[in-house]
Amino acid sequence: MAVVTVERKPLSLLERTYLPNIAAGLATTFKRMVQPAETLEYPEQRPAIPAGYRGVPTLVYDPNGREKCVSCQLCEFVCPPKAIRITPGEIASDDPNAHVEKRPEEFKIDMLRCIYCGLCQEVCPEEAIWLQNQYSMTGYTREEMVNDKKRLYELGGTLPDTHFKWDKKKAAEEAAAHGGGHH
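User: That's the sequence. What structure does it adopt?
Assistant: Structure tokens below.
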């Protein structure tokens, strides 16, 4: 195997003093000093949130103020860091919403474990869990960073619904009104 020697051009006196590089660095510094500041006064000023941003996961109510979650636990199963914990609860037979199988007794999301991947929102068949535009969550203790069902609904609020699972099926109502037969 042949050894190839690369001849280097000797540095000039100016290059050996590094003055051109120092001058270029100072020029950049002075240029930045006269430009307008790009600093935001956080938290009073906040950056624009891009479309499709995945923020804090929350639970939402339907337009009638009823919780949309039916404790199917798909979000809990699909969560990579296992940040979601759901305890399903039964709905009493005398409840006006007894036709829905169940609702969560407890629903907790550990925000210290959440990686904001959005899988919980994607897998939810009832569109009950949504990632909001909120990106700054703080707390002094670990317990403060675990959002329970009440806090998740406070953060989520109400969103439009296309499923209306709490409302009895229109076809079933029409069939009952017309004697139960097909036309």
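The helical segments are 13-17, 19-34, 74-78, 119-123, 149-156, 170-177.
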